[in-house]
Amino acid sequence: MIDEILSRLPTKSLLRFRSVSKSLCDGIGSPDFIRLHTLRSPNKLLIIIHKVRYEYGEDTKTMYTIHSQDQLSSSYTGITPAEYPFGCIRTISGSCNGILCVYDQLRSAIHLWNPSIRRKATVYEHPSWDPCLAHGFGFDPVTGDYKILRASEAGTFVYTMKTHTWREIASPAYPVSYVNGSPCLFKITIIKGCLAVECFKDEGDDHRWIWVRNTAASWSVFELNKGERATYGGLLVNHYAKGIRVFNPETGVRSRLGHLIRSSFIIGFATCIKSLELLDIYEKHNRQI
Question: Rounded to an integer, what is the distance from CA 123 to the centroid of its chain?
């Protein structure tokens, strides 16, 4: 009964409750409870990364802000920015169960980062000097383990978090010189649990539509503005000079994401859910930030 109640509470409350007693701390940090809480988490987050220029000769800083998807607006009132833990923008290779996979090419490292609890684990690349063509990240429900895929000209490798090891797997029979890091179905996405398809008349055409198949087995269609694309969590985005425009096809509402402060600009964003993931994965490899 206690687990049933706790699994429906927000992550911020659960982190505080860990200090109540040792038994409560162990229970909240157990892998089984974390999986249960993740499955029941309804809270989707939008992570916006900002480059901030400071006056008087100070160095620039990279900050991030966390928004719920119903908070999309040009105002940052009440939202406290935090310093981006990787110094500057790095490639976000994927998102799974509240964890973002961030590729740091400069340090030949891959960071698994949970922004909702500010935890990260760092994985160093397979000792191959060949440039990486693409990374993939996901959760294997059969083994209950997170895995990272690395594709390069030297071969294809998989890293498993439980064993902290890389292993080589079979590569395509023909030499690989290019790998598209996007999902295989490039024009298909999921919006609020519904299948959605992006369509256009001709390749490169700016006139596009999103078709969403709802629960009544019928299709709804939304016309997109120039530059909008189906991406992160069913939101469509369009970068422009003063920030980012976001369109939610489910509600038909467009929002403008402005700058954090006058001297900042948006350099990236990602979506994830609130979860406790990484709280239990090899504490010695995690660092609170």
Answer: 17
Read off the pTM.
0.75
pLDDT in tens, 143-192: 888 999 888 777 888 999 888 889 988 876 666 666 655 555 476 666 66
Q: Domain range holding 68?
A: 41-288
Q: For the segment 205-250, what is each residue's pLDDT rounded down to a tens digit?
A: 566 777 777 766 677 777 776 666 655 556 666 666 566 777 776 6
Residues 165 and 60 in one domain: yes
Predicted local distance difference test score (pLDDT) of residue 204: 57
**284: three-class secondary structure by DSSP:** helix
Within this chain, do residues 9 and 125 fall inside the same structural domain, yes or no?
A: no
* Same-domain pairing of 129 and 10: no
Main-chain dihedrals φ then ψ at residue 124, nearest 5 degrees? -90, 145
Q: Indicate which CATH number applies to the domain containing 185.
A: 2.120.10
Judgement on whether residues 18 and 158 belong to the same structural domain of the protein? no
Total structural domains in the chain? 2
CA-closest candidate to residue 179, choices 158, 146, 153:
153
Residue with tokens 């009132």: 77
Residues 27 and 121 in one domain: no
- Residue 53 near residue 60 (C-beta atoms within 8 A): yes
Comparing C-alpha atoms, which of 93, 29, 100, 74 is closest to residue 283? 29
Q: Are residues 101 and 238 in the same domain?
A: yes
Give Cα 71 to chain centroid, integer Å: 18
* Count of other CB atoms within 10 angstroms of residue 256: 14
Share of the chain above pLDDT 90, in %: 4
Give 33's DSSP letter.
H
For the chain, the residue count is 289
**What count of other Cβ atoms lies within 10 Å of the Cβ of residue 148?**
23
- Which two structure tokens, joined as six digits, stand for 251? 């509600």
Q: Are residues 32 and 59 in the same domain?
A: no
